Amino acid sequence: MEPIRPSVAKEQILCVESSAPACGLVVFGASGDLTKRKLIPALGNLFKRGLLGNGFFCLGCGRKKLSDEDFRKIAAEAIKDIPAKQKADFLNSFYYVSGDYNDKNFYGDIKKRLENLDKKGGKNFGRIFYLSLPPKLYSDVAANMGQAGLNKNGKDFVRLVVEKPFGRDLASATELNDCLSKWFGEEQIYRIDHYLGKETVQNILMFRFANSIFEPIWNRNYIDNVQITIAESIGIESRGGYYDKSGAIRDMFVNHMFSMLSLVAMEPPASFGAEHIRNEKVQLLQSIRPFSLEPWNEDIVKGQYASGSVDGKNAIAYRQEADVEKDSKTETYIAARLFVDNWRWQGVPFYLRTGKRLAKRVTEIAITFKKVPHVMFQSAGIEDLPANILVMKIQPKEGMSLFFEAKRPGPKLCIGTLEMDFNYAEIFGTDTPDAYERLLLDCMVGDQTLFTRIDDVKLAWGLIDKILKNWQQQDTEPFLYPAGSESFAEADALIQKDGRNWRKISEL
Ligand code: BG6
Fold it and tell me: At the topology level of CATH, where does 21-163 sit?
């Protein structure tokens, strides 16, 4: 299949980018991995693009005893490509306070430091507190912050950013939220799902609602099925302790996969405003048919990687990974079929799968349209024609592809599938902002569109809870698949019983 390259009318590109108001980012867990890998590089890029407000500062907080200078060294190592003079200015906006999360004095020290930074900057700064901490600390840290008065800041804003997981089931998510909401209003809480910050995930909304040609066919009359894939070639890396208690359903399915599903299937919101979009996402989750688990669960399959080979290198089995139980039943793969019970989607299956240690890293949403109602080329020996497929490519090659049939030059009737391909990097360059850049900026400007609202979190857990309980009661064993696999028989059976097949990961 030869890809056909599109051209873009560059003069038609409309951009709205707001820079952040004067604010400070307070990171709890500042010496940790997320700060180095994601937060500081994202801040560096926002700084380079001139999007950080005047007087911006980052106050790192953590157990580790570090000085401002030590924290600046950490920051210096984490950022790239900033010219020396600008780099010095940027690094000078980093400060650090150390202490114990259970010690009330720690929060008093943070408050004093923030007041001093306000004095130094000659104004009051809005404050964003980022919990880059083990989730078991969230409730206590939020309560200690509240008791120290850090949840308020006069007329200026205070926002709390919470990393997933938001609980591990409906009950714990509700409990966590009850603790947070004693001190912070919902309008102050920003629950991050980094998938929503990815350019191509955001593009789902633009694609659907900034064009008039797709919406009329975006429904049960024209769409046969939707497949959403998040395949990873990596294993659990050094996160065995966390992962073995979570598994793919909590780590990826209940959040990232449901977010993508909501965007692709929701109704058009009245505006691009946060509440309108979040209302429609919630409405969509409310329409998902609860999984039927009787007499057995034929809509969900869980798998776990055994030893194998990925990218030509040997890979150990999940059960041999550090901090994983030797007889663990935790799933590293999940495949599911679900239905959305509303007028638009009645009867259209959504097939979702995500797994670690698969053949390739690829995330995509594939919309398969219905086949033509009548094949009129039978006299030429053409009995069947493939369906058109529209693929939203989320990563690693971000873009869109449309597969359609066309006449090939040559003998009278020679039909072949062509791929019309749009690749973000080719058109817009490779400098796509990282998800954290978008999300941090949105939090600074107070835009909650890409953050998960509590009713969304609860609905998602409500759907998953039944499955978790069922697995626990039945002590369900995962099916084993060799590391580096495309798929495995039981996952294939889930879709093949409907007369369909998964798209081949290695060919995506
Ligand atoms: C995280 C999960 O939320 O997303 C990880 O905890 C997973 O297990 C990661 O590897 C995948 O993110 P991305 O952006 O690399 O697709």
Answer: Rossmann fold (3.40.50)
